[in-house]
Amino acid sequence: MAKSGSDSKKTPRNGGPAVPRRRRTTAGVARSERLAASERAAREGSLAEPHEPEVPNLVNWTMDTLAGLAAGTFDGVAPRTLRELEEEVRQKVAQAPMELNSFGYDPWGFNTDVARRTLVVMALMYRYYFRARTYGIENMPEGRVLVIANHAGQIAIDAAMIGTATVLEGNPPRIVRGMGEYWLPTLPLLNVLMVRVGSVVGTPKNAVDLLNHGEAVIAFPEGVRGMNKSFSERYKLKEFGLGFMRLALQTSTPILPVAVIGSEEQAPSFGNFKPLARLLGMPAFPLVITPVPFPVRYHIYFGEPMEFRGNPNDEDQVIEAKVEQVKARIRSMCETGLRQRKSVFF
Amino acid sequence: MERLLITGISGGQGRLVAKRVAREYTISGVDSTRWEGHARDVTFHQADLRSKKVEDIFRRERPTAVVHLGLLRHNFDPELRHDVNVVGTKRLLEYCAAYGVSKLVILSSSYVYGALAESPYYMDEDTALNVSRHYPEIRDLGEVDTLATTFLWRYPAIATAILRPVSTLGYYVHSSIGAYLKLRYVPTVFGFNPMMQFIHEEDVAEAIALALETNARGVFNLVGPGAVPLKVAIRETGGTAVPLLEGVARDVVSRLFRYGLYPFPADAIDFAKYPCTIDGRRFHEATGFKPLFTLEETLRSVRR
After folding, report:
1. Which residues contact B13 (CB under 8 A, 6 or more apart)?
2. Which phi and psi angles does A43 have, rounded to 5°?
3. pLDDT digits (tens, 9 = 90+) for A81-117
4. pLDDT in tens, A280-338
5. Is residue B245 part of a domain?
6. Domain count, chain B
7. Contact B121 A185 (CB under 8 A)
8. Which residues on B lie below 8 Å from A187 (Cβ)?
9. DSSP classification of residue A96
């Protein structure tokens, strides 16, 4: 059942079925063509037409930029670093194991074009805003895996950073599949984005299906309890839900413990405004001191995979004991990470 | 040759099934609307499934196999369709038990699971039939399905197969989803674009034939070649998606439906918001069914 990353059934994007790709009308391509022309001119000597020097042309530049943006690339307008980042993300996504239909969607609605564009924004935050450092990514096993992490920071940037880390730093790159809150599918636009980048509603059935499909599924057993805790409780792990352990036992999936350092300081909160949360139908309404997350430095520690055996429908007590092992591992990884951290921002 | 009775034979699906199994069965058909120019070897009866005339057909012709397609699937009058579908099916099941039918195929629908925000993807046959929670206008589908499932367990000697196909598309079939996708401007809900599964009408006919052939017994999801977002389906069938804010959409649609100008009630909007995708592995394992038509071919079959 488990399909490993290098399984021939899983087709990487570039070797897969013909997925319609946008034509790239880009300055980059044009430049390389001009370069080829100049090389040809050099070889053929004076018989060839003389090479015209490149003249900056505002009209061409603007059109290239607009065409590039329309096609979802940053060619033309962007500085070189951005273009390189975009290309890097493109290559990494192409290397990630996935199974797309002839329209470019996987059974759960994941789509590489949307995921790639989102990942470029995420990668910018990962590299230049949060300047994330990732440790132990080589612990990521092939095939099915349940990524379990601590949750903090009022909005799920930690999930996005882990997801970006597995694409940018992973070998092979992996798309981690998020398990969304039950109210996310009811939000216009956001529900579509969530699905296109690989997340689904966090029902047990969806998780089991994804794991049996050989995917990397990420879950935060603390849930909103952890994400919306106040600043005074930072890095104190809240109660873990038991569902993830039952899933791991049911599908015999290894658990990859992950500790995220930095998320707690990105948006300190001093309380939860429950009436407003109820009014808006949100799980919580944290009172944060900043509308924009602070540029803290993220440290993401990937621990060694943990294997568990047992009856997935066992009593809560038995499951709790196993969950406690995972929690203890993440807690000790958090402590190590905090001890090694020199500064919140640098 | 065994005798097969097809209810709803004048509809597109009925004609396709009749054509598909013509060589294996002596076919008779019953429908409330006429089938002009039907094949000569098909015995056609014009009758309402609720009428006593149908019992006469069973008494005289003694069919050993029955394919039940005679359900009103989209209709402006929810009360009428509830009566026709539930009472008609109940009577038909009684005749099947009383007149020694040995196999029965009932075409239910994947819509019985309902489109809910919290439903998982790829629901299996044991999932609750939630459609009536938000979409009471088609609760008769759920009731027909439940009637059939009860029948399945009450009469173990009869090979009853209940098929729940995904959205069926094709030239002959007049499905709700087909009518929706054939609109020039297709109203959608702003900010929502659920994954949808489709199956070609001839694949449905093939599945029914396979269920008869293999004496399949049980409840089966029936899936086609895969899933695409709703807006990809609209694009591929040649329509233009018109996203409406949900409040506006509900208001407009419910008014149009009340005046008989638009064929779907407002509650159908949930199917354009949330996915209702099902897992077809059980039927594949039982009968070896595989769809013959690709996603492109299936969608192209209703292209404007």
Report:
1. B69, B107, B168, B172, B173, B201, B204, B205
2. -70, -40
3. 788 888 999 999 999 999 999 999 999 999 999 999 9
4. 877 778 888 888 899 999 999 999 999 999 999 999 999 999 999 999 999 999 999 99
5. no
6. 1
7. no
8. 191
9. S
Q: Looking at beta carbons, which residues of chain B come within 8 Å of A200?
A: 120-121
Same-domain check for residues A212 and A259? yes
| Contact call for A107 and B121, based on CB within 8 A | yes
Radius of gyration of chain A (CA): 23
Asked if A208 contacts B122 with a C-beta cutoff of 8 angstroms, the reply is: no
Distance from CA of A101 to the nearest CA of B (A): 8
Give B203: exposed, middle or buried? Use CB within 10 Å, 0-12, 13-18, 19+: buried
**Do the bridges between strand A286-288 and strand A269-272 make them parallel or antiparallel, or are there none, so unpaired?**
antiparallel
Model pLDDT, residue B97? 97
| Contact across the interface for B228 and A188, Cβ inside 8 Å | no
Three-state DSSP class for residue B301: coil
For B274, name the nearest residue in chain A, comparing CA atoms only: A185
Domain extent at residue A174: 112-340
Residue B230, pLDDT above cutoff 50: yes
Q: What are the phi and psi torsion angles at B103 (to 5°)? A: -140, 145
- A125 & A28 share domain: no
Place of tokens 């409040």: B247
Q: Are residues A62 and A142 in the same domain?
A: no
Contact B232 A201 (CB under 8 A): no
Same domain, yes or no: A57 and A119? no
Of the candidates B52, B63, B20, B55, the one whose C-alpha atom is nearest the C-alpha of residue B39 is B20
Residues in chain B whose Cβ is within 8 Å of chain A: 117-123, 189-193, 195, 226-229, 232, 236, 246, 274-275, 277, 294-296
In this structure, which amino acid lies at residue B54? V
DSSP string computed for A15-35: GSS---------HHHHHHHHH
For residue B195, list chain A residues with Cβ-Cβ distance below 8 A: 105, 107-109, 195
Which positions in chain A have a beta carbon within 8 angstroms of at least one beta carbon in chain B? Answer: 101-103, 105, 107-109, 182-183, 185-192, 195, 200-201, 203-206, 209
Angle between helices A243-250 and A204-212 (to 10 degrees): 40
| Contact yes or no for A105 and B117 at CB 8 A | no
User: Does residue B151 lie in a domain region?
Assistant: yes
Length of chain B: 304
In angstroms, the CA A284 to CA A274 distance is 6
d(CA B172, CA A225): 54
CA distance B75 to chain A (A): 28
Same domain, A56 and A199: no
Distance CA B247, CA A331 (A): 46
Of A102, A185, A206, nearest to B274 by CB-CB distance is A185
Q: Which residues of A touch B274 (CB under 8 A)?
A: 185
Would you list the DSSP string of B205-261? HHHHHHHHHTT--EEEEE--SEEEEHHHHHHHTT-EEEEE-HHHHHHHHHHHHHTTS
Residues in chain B with CB shorter than 8 Å from the CB of A195 are 195
Out of A26, A57, A79, pick the residue that ends a domain: A79
Least confident of A7-16, A168-177, A326-335: A7-16
